[in-house]
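Write out C-alpha coordinates for Centromere protein P.
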Amino acid sequence: MVPLPPPPSSAMVPASSAGGLKVSEGARLKAASSRGLAMDSLRAETRALEAEITALRRACVELPDPGADTTRVRRSFQEIRQSDSEGWESSKDLRSHLGHLESELLFLSTLTGINIRNYSQRTEDIMNAEMTETGTKKVLQRHRLSGNCHMITFQLEFQILEIQNKESVSSMITDLSIIMEPTDYSELSEFVSRAEERRDLFMFFRSLHFFVEWCEYRKRTFKHFKENYPEVVHLSEGASSSCMGIRSPRQPGFELIIVWRIQIDEEGKVLPKLDLLTQVPLQALELDKNRVVETAPFSFRTLLGVLGIEATLESLIKSLCTEEN
Protein backbone atom coordinates (compact mmCIF):
# COMPACT_ATOMS: atom_id res chain seq x y z
CA MET A 1 0.00 0.00 0.00
CA VAL A 2 1.52 3.35 -1.12
CA PRO A 3 1.37 6.13 1.55
CA LEU A 4 -0.39 9.37 0.55
CA PRO A 5 1.63 12.62 0.41
CA PRO A 6 1.13 15.06 3.31
CA PRO A 7 -1.45 17.82 2.79
CA PRO A 8 -0.16 21.24 1.58
CA SER A 9 0.68 23.68 4.37
CA SER A 10 1.39 27.43 4.10
CA ALA A 11 3.89 27.03 6.91
CA MET A 12 5.97 24.62 4.89
CA VAL A 13 8.05 26.52 2.31
CA PRO A 14 10.97 24.85 0.57
CA ALA A 15 14.34 26.53 1.11
CA SER A 16 14.83 26.96 -2.62
CA SER A 17 11.56 28.98 -2.89
CA ALA A 18 12.61 31.36 -0.11
CA GLY A 19 15.89 31.99 -1.86
CA GLY A 20 14.00 32.68 -5.09
CA LEU A 21 11.96 35.41 -3.38
CA LYS A 22 15.11 37.15 -2.19
CA VAL A 23 16.63 37.11 -5.69
CA SER A 24 13.40 38.48 -7.22
CA GLU A 25 13.25 41.32 -4.72
CA GLY A 26 16.87 42.32 -5.39
CA ALA A 27 16.23 42.35 -9.15
CA ARG A 28 13.27 44.66 -8.69
CA LEU A 29 15.32 47.08 -6.58
CA LYS A 30 18.09 47.10 -9.17
CA ALA A 31 15.62 47.76 -12.02
CA ALA A 32 14.01 50.61 -10.08
CA SER A 33 17.43 52.17 -9.46
CA SER A 34 18.28 51.94 -13.18
CA ARG A 35 15.01 53.63 -14.11
CA GLY A 36 15.73 56.45 -11.64
CA LEU A 37 19.19 57.06 -13.15
CA ALA A 38 17.72 57.10 -16.66
CA MET A 39 15.11 59.66 -15.57
CA ASP A 40 17.82 61.91 -14.07
CA SER A 41 19.84 61.72 -17.27
CA LEU A 42 16.81 62.62 -19.40
CA ARG A 43 15.95 65.55 -17.13
CA ALA A 44 19.51 66.93 -17.39
CA GLU A 45 19.45 66.66 -21.19
CA THR A 46 16.06 68.36 -21.29
CA ARG A 47 17.31 71.30 -19.22
CA ALA A 48 20.32 71.71 -21.52
CA LEU A 49 18.06 71.80 -24.60
CA GLU A 50 15.75 74.33 -22.96
CA ALA A 51 18.73 76.56 -22.19
CA GLU A 52 19.92 76.36 -25.81
CA ILE A 53 16.50 77.37 -27.06
CA THR A 54 16.40 80.29 -24.60
CA ALA A 55 19.74 81.57 -25.93
CA LEU A 56 18.27 81.70 -29.47
CA ARG A 57 14.83 83.00 -28.56
CA ARG A 58 15.40 86.74 -28.92
CA ALA A 59 17.45 86.33 -32.11
CA CYS A 60 14.57 84.44 -33.69
CA VAL A 61 11.59 86.49 -32.60
CA GLU A 62 13.21 89.75 -33.79
CA LEU A 63 13.59 88.56 -37.38
CA PRO A 64 11.74 90.73 -39.95
CA ASP A 65 8.59 89.77 -41.83
CA PRO A 66 6.65 88.53 -38.80
CA GLY A 67 4.59 85.88 -40.55
CA ALA A 68 3.49 82.43 -39.58
CA ASP A 69 7.01 81.22 -38.73
CA THR A 70 7.59 83.98 -36.17
CA THR A 71 4.15 83.38 -34.63
CA ARG A 72 4.96 79.71 -34.30
CA VAL A 73 8.27 80.51 -32.58
CA ARG A 74 6.61 82.77 -29.99
CA ARG A 75 3.88 80.22 -29.30
CA SER A 76 6.39 77.39 -28.95
CA PHE A 77 8.46 79.28 -26.40
CA GLN A 78 5.38 80.18 -24.38
CA GLU A 79 4.46 76.50 -24.20
CA ILE A 80 8.00 75.53 -23.23
CA ARG A 81 8.25 78.11 -20.45
CA GLN A 82 4.90 77.07 -18.98
CA SER A 83 5.88 73.42 -18.80
CA ASP A 84 7.57 71.91 -15.73
CA SER A 85 9.84 69.00 -16.46
CA GLU A 86 9.95 67.97 -12.78
CA GLY A 87 6.27 67.11 -12.80
CA TRP A 88 6.27 64.28 -15.28
CA GLU A 89 5.25 60.97 -13.78
CA SER A 90 6.63 58.60 -16.39
CA SER A 91 9.69 58.30 -18.59
CA LYS A 92 7.35 58.08 -21.59
CA ASP A 93 6.07 61.63 -20.93
CA LEU A 94 9.62 62.87 -20.49
CA ARG A 95 10.79 61.28 -23.75
CA SER A 96 7.79 62.81 -25.54
CA HIS A 97 8.65 66.28 -24.26
CA LEU A 98 12.31 65.77 -25.13
CA GLY A 99 11.34 64.91 -28.69
CA HIS A 100 9.22 68.05 -28.83
CA LEU A 101 12.18 70.19 -27.72
CA GLU A 102 14.44 68.58 -30.30
CA SER A 103 11.98 69.31 -33.10
CA GLU A 104 11.67 72.95 -31.98
CA LEU A 105 15.44 73.30 -31.82
CA LEU A 106 15.71 71.91 -35.35
CA PHE A 107 13.05 74.38 -36.50
CA LEU A 108 14.96 77.31 -34.99
CA SER A 109 18.22 76.17 -36.58
CA THR A 110 16.53 75.93 -39.98
CA LEU A 111 14.91 79.34 -39.60
CA THR A 112 17.97 81.26 -38.39
CA GLY A 113 20.82 79.22 -39.85
CA ILE A 114 22.41 79.09 -36.37
CA ASN A 115 23.43 75.66 -35.08
CA ILE A 116 24.52 75.07 -31.49
CA ARG A 117 26.92 72.13 -31.30
CA ASN A 118 28.11 72.17 -27.69
CA TYR A 119 26.62 73.74 -24.58
CA SER A 120 27.34 73.72 -20.85
CA GLN A 121 26.01 75.66 -17.86
CA ARG A 122 27.02 76.16 -14.24
CA THR A 123 24.81 77.79 -11.62
CA GLU A 124 25.91 79.51 -8.42
CA ASP A 125 23.67 80.88 -5.65
CA ILE A 126 24.81 84.23 -4.20
CA MET A 127 23.53 84.80 -0.66
CA ASN A 128 24.31 87.14 2.24
CA ALA A 129 22.62 88.21 5.47
CA GLU A 130 20.89 91.25 3.97
CA MET A 131 19.50 89.27 1.04
CA THR A 132 18.19 86.61 3.43
CA GLU A 133 16.33 89.21 5.49
CA THR A 134 14.72 90.84 2.45
CA GLY A 135 13.87 87.54 0.81
CA THR A 136 16.01 88.33 -2.25
CA LYS A 137 17.81 85.57 -4.10
CA LYS A 138 20.61 86.02 -6.64
CA VAL A 139 21.60 83.26 -9.04
CA LEU A 140 24.67 83.55 -11.29
CA GLN A 141 24.53 81.39 -14.42
CA ARG A 142 27.71 80.75 -16.38
CA HIS A 143 27.07 79.60 -19.94
CA ARG A 144 29.44 78.31 -22.60
CA LEU A 145 28.46 77.29 -26.11
CA SER A 146 29.92 76.83 -29.56
CA GLY A 147 28.25 76.66 -32.92
CA ASN A 148 28.14 78.03 -36.42
CA CYS A 149 26.04 80.20 -38.68
CA HIS A 150 26.55 78.64 -42.11
CA MET A 151 30.30 79.00 -42.81
CA ILE A 152 31.12 81.17 -39.75
CA THR A 153 31.94 79.41 -36.47
CA PHE A 154 31.92 80.98 -33.01
CA GLN A 155 32.38 80.31 -29.30
CA LEU A 156 30.53 82.23 -26.60
CA GLU A 157 31.03 82.55 -22.86
CA PHE A 158 28.59 84.71 -20.93
CA GLN A 159 27.20 85.20 -17.43
CA ILE A 160 23.59 85.95 -16.52
CA LEU A 161 22.71 87.34 -13.09
CA GLU A 162 19.15 86.52 -12.06
CA ILE A 163 17.60 88.43 -9.15
CA GLN A 164 14.47 87.01 -7.53
CA ASN A 165 12.32 88.62 -4.86
CA LYS A 166 8.75 88.30 -3.66
CA GLU A 167 7.44 90.62 -6.38
CA SER A 168 9.44 89.97 -9.54
CA VAL A 169 12.29 88.19 -11.28
CA SER A 170 14.86 90.07 -13.38
CA SER A 171 18.00 89.01 -15.22
CA MET A 172 20.89 90.70 -17.00
CA ILE A 173 24.04 89.68 -18.87
CA THR A 174 27.02 90.72 -16.76
CA ASP A 175 29.83 89.44 -18.99
CA LEU A 176 30.15 88.37 -22.64
CA SER A 177 33.14 86.96 -24.50
CA ILE A 178 32.98 86.07 -28.22
CA ILE A 179 35.63 84.09 -30.05
CA MET A 180 35.40 83.92 -33.83
CA GLU A 181 37.54 81.67 -35.98
CA PRO A 182 39.59 83.62 -38.55
CA THR A 183 37.58 84.55 -41.66
CA ASP A 184 37.96 86.73 -44.72
CA TYR A 185 35.21 89.02 -43.44
CA SER A 186 37.03 91.96 -41.86
CA GLU A 187 33.69 93.65 -41.06
CA LEU A 188 33.01 91.10 -38.34
CA SER A 189 35.96 92.02 -36.14
CA GLU A 190 34.72 95.49 -35.21
CA PHE A 191 31.16 94.23 -34.82
CA VAL A 192 32.20 91.48 -32.38
CA SER A 193 34.11 94.00 -30.23
CA ARG A 194 31.05 96.24 -30.12
CA ALA A 195 28.75 93.36 -29.13
CA GLU A 196 31.14 92.35 -26.33
CA GLU A 197 31.36 95.91 -25.05
CA ARG A 198 27.58 96.26 -24.93
CA ARG A 199 27.11 92.69 -23.65
CA ASP A 200 24.38 92.38 -26.28
CA LEU A 201 24.06 88.69 -27.00
CA PHE A 202 20.88 89.01 -29.03
CA MET A 203 22.30 91.72 -31.31
CA PHE A 204 25.21 89.36 -32.02
CA PHE A 205 22.95 86.49 -33.12
CA ARG A 206 20.58 88.73 -35.09
CA SER A 207 23.30 90.65 -36.95
CA LEU A 208 25.35 87.52 -37.62
CA HIS A 209 22.30 85.89 -39.21
CA PHE A 210 21.66 88.78 -41.60
CA PHE A 211 25.37 89.28 -42.34
CA VAL A 212 25.67 85.67 -43.48
CA GLU A 213 22.45 85.98 -45.50
CA TRP A 214 23.90 88.97 -47.41
CA CYS A 215 27.21 87.14 -47.96
CA GLU A 216 25.35 84.18 -49.44
CA TYR A 217 23.29 86.47 -51.67
CA ARG A 218 26.42 88.24 -52.94
CA LYS A 219 28.05 84.89 -53.67
CA ARG A 220 25.01 83.63 -55.62
CA THR A 221 24.77 86.89 -57.59
CA PHE A 222 28.43 86.94 -58.63
CA LYS A 223 28.28 83.25 -59.54
CA HIS A 224 25.19 83.86 -61.69
CA PHE A 225 26.88 86.56 -63.78
CA LYS A 226 30.12 84.59 -64.07
CA GLU A 227 28.22 81.59 -65.46
CA ASN A 228 26.15 83.70 -67.89
CA TYR A 229 28.98 86.01 -69.06
CA PRO A 230 32.19 83.95 -68.61
CA GLU A 231 34.25 86.01 -71.09
CA VAL A 232 33.27 89.33 -69.58
CA VAL A 233 32.94 88.81 -65.82
CA HIS A 234 36.06 88.12 -63.75
CA LEU A 235 36.18 87.16 -60.05
CA SER A 236 39.71 87.46 -58.66
CA GLU A 237 38.90 85.43 -55.53
CA GLY A 238 36.21 83.14 -56.94
CA ALA A 239 32.52 83.34 -56.13
CA SER A 240 33.30 84.39 -52.53
CA SER A 241 35.05 87.52 -53.76
CA SER A 242 33.83 90.96 -52.72
CA CYS A 243 34.77 92.43 -56.11
CA MET A 244 33.58 91.67 -59.63
CA GLY A 245 35.39 92.90 -62.73
CA ILE A 246 33.63 93.61 -66.03
CA ARG A 247 36.03 93.74 -68.99
CA SER A 248 35.15 94.62 -72.54
CA PRO A 249 36.42 92.00 -75.02
CA ARG A 250 36.56 94.63 -77.76
CA GLN A 251 38.04 97.51 -75.75
CA PRO A 252 41.34 96.40 -74.14
CA GLY A 253 42.22 98.29 -70.96
CA PHE A 254 38.63 99.30 -70.24
CA GLU A 255 37.24 97.71 -67.07
CA LEU A 256 34.48 98.36 -64.56
CA ILE A 257 34.98 97.03 -61.02
CA ILE A 258 32.06 96.43 -58.67
CA VAL A 259 33.07 96.58 -54.99
CA TRP A 260 30.36 95.01 -52.82
CA ARG A 261 30.86 95.42 -49.07
CA ILE A 262 28.53 94.33 -46.28
CA GLN A 263 28.52 96.73 -43.34
CA ILE A 264 27.15 96.47 -39.79
CA ASP A 265 26.24 99.81 -38.22
CA GLU A 266 26.37 100.85 -34.55
CA GLU A 267 22.95 99.36 -33.82
CA GLY A 268 23.75 96.05 -35.49
CA LYS A 269 21.81 96.72 -38.68
CA VAL A 270 23.33 94.96 -41.71
CA LEU A 271 23.44 96.92 -44.96
CA PRO A 272 25.05 96.26 -48.36
CA LYS A 273 27.26 98.96 -49.88
CA LEU A 274 28.14 98.79 -53.58
CA ASP A 275 30.60 101.10 -55.36
CA LEU A 276 31.75 101.36 -58.95
CA LEU A 277 35.39 101.87 -59.88
CA THR A 278 36.59 102.50 -63.43
CA GLN A 279 39.82 101.66 -65.24
CA VAL A 280 39.97 103.56 -68.50
CA PRO A 281 42.92 104.20 -70.86
CA LEU A 282 44.23 107.76 -70.79
CA GLN A 283 43.34 108.27 -74.44
CA ALA A 284 39.71 107.44 -73.71
CA LEU A 285 39.63 109.90 -70.81
CA GLU A 286 40.87 112.68 -73.10
CA LEU A 287 38.03 111.96 -75.53
CA ASP A 288 35.39 111.90 -72.76
CA LYS A 289 34.09 115.46 -73.20
CA ASN A 290 30.81 114.68 -71.40
CA ARG A 291 32.62 113.38 -68.28
CA VAL A 292 30.81 110.06 -68.46
CA VAL A 293 33.65 108.19 -66.74
CA GLU A 294 33.97 110.78 -63.98
CA THR A 295 30.27 110.70 -63.10
CA ALA A 296 29.90 106.92 -63.50
CA PRO A 297 30.09 106.11 -59.75
CA PHE A 298 27.32 108.59 -58.92
CA SER A 299 25.16 107.34 -61.78
CA PHE A 300 25.75 103.79 -60.56
CA ARG A 301 24.35 104.57 -57.08
CA THR A 302 21.32 106.22 -58.65
CA LEU A 303 20.73 103.19 -60.83
CA LEU A 304 20.91 100.91 -57.79
CA GLY A 305 18.08 102.83 -56.15
CA VAL A 306 15.92 102.52 -59.25
CA LEU A 307 16.61 99.01 -60.58
CA GLY A 308 18.07 97.11 -57.64
CA ILE A 309 21.35 95.20 -57.46
CA GLU A 310 20.90 92.41 -60.01
CA ALA A 311 19.27 94.52 -62.74
CA THR A 312 21.90 97.25 -62.32
CA LEU A 313 24.80 94.83 -62.68
CA GLU A 314 23.26 93.20 -65.72
CA SER A 315 22.66 96.57 -67.38
CA LEU A 316 26.33 97.48 -66.89
CA ILE A 317 27.49 94.21 -68.42
CA LYS A 318 25.22 94.56 -71.43
CA SER A 319 26.03 98.23 -72.01
CA LEU A 320 29.74 97.47 -72.02
CA CYS A 321 29.64 94.36 -74.17
CA THR A 322 26.90 94.75 -76.76
CA GLU A 323 27.89 95.00 -80.41
CA GLU A 324 26.34 98.44 -80.73
CA ASN A 325 28.79 99.84 -78.15
